[in-house]
């Protein structure tokens, strides 16, 4: 395999990996956000709605516990922006994934031309470097989002990519 073809293959795998990682990462962040909102809401409802119930039963020792629950729910609500992603970040993640899909599709088209011997070495290099010029907005958006590396997601994506490559290219 000529060097440029190896570079394109590596770029192809990297682009697909990022697209899959962003998909999983976004889903995980949305799940965390959902559960965080459910727990915070439940704590507020429990704390505020049980106050009068316990005072009717004259169980005054419960008052500090209810105050603690209300306090915890307020702390959770105030730390919300620091714990979970906001709507704008989720939109940016979705946009980034779309950009990676578009880039990946172009790389895959080039890879298929290479595999089918429908393109010369000079054309391969020319098309690849034209494609590489389109990566700058993707990298800028990715850097602005500050995507964290999560080991369990990395492993899951690696396994998925290996499976995809085996299925598509019988490698």
Provide key terms for this protein.
6 helices; 171 residues; single chain; mainly alpha; 0% strand
Total domain units: 1
Shape: elongated
Q: Tally the helices: what do you get? A: 6
Compute the number of strand runs.
0
Order of helices and strands: HHHHHH
Distance between the termini: 14 Å
Q: What structural class results from the helix and strand content? A: mainly alpha
Mean pLDDT: 85
Low-confidence stretches: none
Protein architecture, described:
The chain is mainly alpha-helical and 171 residues long. The chain has one domain. Helix content is 85%, strand content 0%. The chain has six helices and no strands. It has helices at 3-56, 62-83, 87-115, 121-132, 136-145, 151-169. The longest helix has 54 residues, at 3-56. It starts with a helix and ends with a helix. The model has no long low-confidence stretch (mean pLDDT 85).
Draw up the topology in text:
Layout: H1 3-56, H2 62-83, H3 87-115, H4 121-132, H5 136-145, H6 151-169
Helix pairs in contact: 1-2, 1-3, 1-6, 3-4, 3-5
Short summary of the structure?
The protein has six helices and no strands. By secondary structure, the chain is mostly helical.
């Amino acid at each position: 395999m000529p060097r440029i073809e190896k570079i394109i293959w590596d770029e192809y795998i990297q682009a697909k990996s990022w697209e899959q990682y962003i998909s999983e990462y976004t889903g995980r962040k949305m799940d965390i956000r959902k559960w965080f909102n459910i727990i915070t809401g439940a704590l507020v409802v429990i704390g505020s709605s049980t106050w009068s119930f316990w005072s009717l039963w004259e169980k005054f020792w419960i008052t500090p516990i209810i105050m603690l629950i209300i306090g915890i729910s307020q702390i959770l609500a105030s730390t919300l922006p620091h714990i979970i992603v906001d709507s704008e970040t989720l939109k940016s993640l979705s946009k980034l994934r779309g950009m990676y899909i578009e880039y990946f599709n172009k790389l895959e088209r080039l890879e298929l031309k290479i595999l089918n011997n429908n393109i010369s070495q000079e054309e391969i290099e020319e098309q690849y470097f034209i494609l590489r010029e389109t990566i700058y907005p993707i990298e800028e958006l990715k850097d602005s989002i500050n995507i964290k590396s999560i080991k369990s997601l990395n492993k899951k994506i690696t396994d998925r990519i290996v499976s995809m490559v085996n299925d598509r290219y019988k490698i």
